[in-house]
Input
Amino acid sequence: MKKLQFARSGYILISFVFYVAAVIYLIFPDLPPLALSCFSGVILILYGIIKLVGFFSEDLYCLAFRYDLAWGLLLMVVGVLLLVKNVSVAQYLTPGLGWIALLDSLFHIQMAKEARDFGIKEWKLVLGLSIAAGVLSVLLIIRGFPSPQATHILACIVLLACGAINHCIVKLMVYFPHRSAASKTDTEEFI
Output
C-alpha cells in the first residue's frame, strides 16, 4: 500500500515537474547546455525511480505500471548518461525528448487499449492524449518546424503533454485498497 501511494504521488510529482520544466524552458529558452543536461538527467533518474516503485507496487488492475520495470531502468540509464556526458550530448536533448515522449506515448496507447478491455470508461481520454503526444513527439524528432523558436515551443508542448498523460493515468487507472465505510476495522477492501 505504501509503495502504491508513493508511486501515485511520484507520478503526480513528475507530472508537475514536467509542467514546471515546460514553463521554465519556455520563459528561458537560452539555458546553458550544462544546466539543461544536468536538469534533464536528474528528472529522468527521478522518473525512472518512480516507475520502478510503481512496477513493484500492488496496483489492483496492474495497468498503470505494467511496463515500468524496463522503462524505469532505461530512463535511469539515460539520466546517468546525461549527467556524465552533459555538454557533449546537449545537442541531442530535443530529439531525445521526442524519442522518450514517443516511447512513453506508445506504451500509453497500449495501456488505453487494456483499460478499454477492463471497462474503464476514460480510456478514450488516455488514448487521445497519447496519440496527440506521439504525433508531437515525431514532429520533435524530425524537427518538423523550420525555425528553432517553433521547435523550442514544440518541446515545451511535448513536456506539457507528457505531464498531462501521466497525471491522467495516475488519476484514472490506479486503484487503491480502501477502508469499508460500514466497518471501523483495519481490514481493507478493494474498489
Summary: DSSP finds six helices and two strands in the chain. The helical segments are 2-27, 33-55, 68-89, 93-118, 123-141, 148-173.
